[in-house]
Amino acid sequence: MRKEVVLITGANGEMGHGLIQHLGQQGTFDIIALDVQPLDDHLKPYCLRAIQGDILDTMLLGRLVAEFEIRTIYHLASILSTKAEYNPEAAHRVNVEGTLNLLRLAVEQSQWQGKPVKFLYPSSIAVYGLPDLETKRCAGKVKEYNWLEPTTMYGCNKLYCEHLGRYYARYYRQLAADYGQSSVDFRSIRFPGLISAVTLPTGGTSDYGPEMLHHAAQGLPYKCFVRPDTRLPFMAMPDAIKALLQLEAAPRSALSQYVYNVTSFSISAEEFYQIVKKAFPEAEITFDPHPNRQKIVDSWPEDVDDSAARQDWGWQPDYDLERAFSEYLIPAVRQRYEVARQVR
Ligand code: SER
């Protein structure tokens, strides 16, 4: 008998950390963690298997199909928006071909199991592309189907993979005689900028928020690469994990769409600075906007409309702006670097 498991790709990334810890502590499912980087030692005890490997390695994915009965896939692996601009074609391979490989794996699994395999896919506010600042400021809470003209390779990849997910869930091999026998239960969330107290993102464009906080907590100077008036929606990492788990648990019949916005609070870089400075008065933070990274952030919405998620699967963040900083980010980030100092 193959073992029933949950597969997490990008397991050693920011979301992977939170998700593995949560699912691991719950202990309901065995976890297979996959990442190109070795999994951090403290996450290993939560996993049945930690595999260092590439989602582009189809032989490796084939071996997973042979060995495990995968009930749910959290496909978190991705090259984020800034990094993707340095090598757009390589990013396309990882973000699109990688996702296609995982969708294919999900189809195969569902054929073996005779039931749909759940496929949780984090998408992003990067799928939006507002043409200019004026439009961004007037757009208000952007709905899932508006302003879908991304300006980054990452945004294009995420938007296309949302479509691929919908295709695999509903139309995959629609002319085949056995069409509809098995399928992928695709569910996606468009996340705003995420802020974790324990990990830093790598290669994103909303990174100025978390970077400001983590630099300040370590007593390191920080040059913020966007203007003070730059506004984006953000969310604390525990809420992002909660959203993924809630969407996973929702009955399919309650879901009226494949892709949902979620958000918690919208905040400007200046407001971020004020909060960080209050918590860490010694912090040396300056603003030194990078023109092209600024343009990317200027094309992303100030706020998104997450009413569909609220209505269909009861989405509600635990951490608003106040709670996110006072009860989670500031105390946890303080503790993180305090412990690091003591270890040194
Ligand atoms: N946080 C991501 C990035 O900045 C957007 O999803 O690339």
UniProtKB/TrEMBL annotation:
Pfam families: Epimerase (PF01370). Its EC number is 4.2.1.47. GO terms for molecular function: GDP-mannose 4,6-dehydratase activity. Keywords: Lyase. It comes from the Bacteria. It is an enzyme of class 4 (lyase). Belongs to the NAD(P)-dependent epimerase/dehydratase family. PANTHER family: L-THREONINE 3-DEHYDROGENASE, L-THREONINE 3-DEHYDROGENASE, MITOCHONDRIAL. This is GDP-mannose 4,6-dehydratase. It comes from Thermanaerothrix solaris.
